[in-house]
Every structure is written in C-alpha cells, then in structure tokens.
C-alpha cells in the first residue's frame, strides 16, 4: 500500500519557491490564496515596477502572512540613480524595516552597466535583518559572471534575472551557468514564466521562480475621452524631468 501511494503522489524531491510579483493588495491576496511562497511587492508593472506607496505597504503588511519583499526602485527607466534618488531609496528601506517586511528588492548600476558597488554596500548595510534580492538590473550588467562573484560575497541572497534575455526560457543557458557557478546566492529565473514552462526551471535545478501571472481585468465598460498614458515618456535611456527654464518661461508669461 505504501509503495502504491508513493507512485501516485506528486514528486516533490525539491521544494521550489514560487515568488509572485504583486502590484496591488488584490494581487497580493490572490498570490497568497493560490499558494505562492513569497511576494515581491511593487507598483506599475508596465514599467518594470517601482516602490509602492505608503498605503499599499501598510495594507499588505496588515493583510498578508507569507513573506513579502518590497521593490526599492524610486522611478522607472534605468538603474543609475542621482543623489536625490539614492536618498529616497534609503528612506524607503527604513520604512520597510519599520513595517516589519521580510526583505527588499533592489539594484544599482553605474552608467557603464557595472554594479554600483559602493552604493550597494551602503544600502545593504542599512538593510540590517532585511533579506535582499538583486533585481533585473542584473540583466543589464556587462559582465554577469563578475557581477555574480561580487554579489556572492555580499549579504544579498537572491538574484532575479531572465538570463539577459527578454524571457527566462530564452536565457536558460546563462541562467544555468549562473546557478552552477553561484556559491550561496540563489538564482531566481523570472520573466515570461507561466504554467506551461515553469517545470523546465525545476528540472534544471533552480530553487525558485518569479512570475506576475497577470491577467488584464476590465474595470471600465466605456473608454475615457482622454487617455492618461504617455508612451513617449517610456524610455530606458532618457528620463522625463521638469525643465527649470521651461517652467520659468511659463511663470513669467502669466505672472
């Protein structure tokens, strides 16, 4: 009887962490109900995610019981930050500690796509007991093996990466190389993972996967008269920043 039961039960030789990227409280609730092991909490998935608001942070920590790591990313676009933005990241890490979150998700690069090691060290020290995932800024680094070596010797415990491809299934060669090379850092494939391909990553020996599992849900039955999305402001190389001279000219014209 025991032998038959072993044959019939699902094989679970290695427990895999399923992390869901949740962009709202509703998404986080669904992730927990569905059996996810962990949540990455962010806002604005369309731009790769940014740090969620205070209100979302409070609602999720009150409602969700599984571990949650909060994305610490002050804006969309690239991962090379100004001094202003660096200070904002510090404040958001402090807020995550005050709320009692499990960890944070962060990443910083120099303009030449190397790790911003000095600032990463500073943020890591500030995290104290917060666990740290290095996010998909890793997919921009010019030398991924060198970057892995540095992260492996830091307190960062996880790297979220697609293997420097648009989808993780296409980057599986680099992902596998990273996974075999890593000494202590968990390599967590993410981007384009769903129920049709998730098993591939378990078969390749990965211990975690990351997905958003989003479905576009219609909340309006009539299209608004004026759209609020601005595709021209979406760029990796350029940032939309209010121009001092342009504002001065407008103020001068009406004052």
Can you describe this structure?
It is built from 9 helices and 8 strands. The chain is of the alpha/beta class and about 260 residues long. It has one domain: Copper homeostasis (CutC) domain (TIM Barrel), CATH 3.20.20. It has an 8-stranded parallel beta sheet with strand order 7-6-5-4-3-2-1-8. Helix 2 links the parallel strand 1 and strand 2. The protein is globular. The N and C termini lie far apart (about 90 Å). The relative contact order is 0.11. The N terminus is likely disordered.
How many runs of DSSP E, i.e. beta strands?
A: 8
Q: State the end-to-end distance.
A: 88 Å
CATH class: Alpha Beta
Mean pLDDT: 92
The figure for the number of domains is 1
Helices, by number, come to: 9
Describe the secondary structure blueprint for this structure:
Layout: H1 2-8, E1 17-22, H2 25-34, E2 38-41, H3 54-63, E3 68-71, H4 83-99, E4 103-106, H5 117-127, E5 131-134, H6 144-152, E6 158-161, H7 172-181, E7 186-189, H8 198-203, E8 208-211, H9 244-254
Parallel strand pairs: 1-2, 1-8, 2-3, 3-4, 4-5, 5-6, 6-7
Sum up the structure in keywords.
255 residues; alpha/beta; TIM Barrel; eight-stranded parallel beta sheet; 13% strand; disordered N terminus
Quickly describe the structure:
With 255 residues, the protein is of the alpha/beta class.
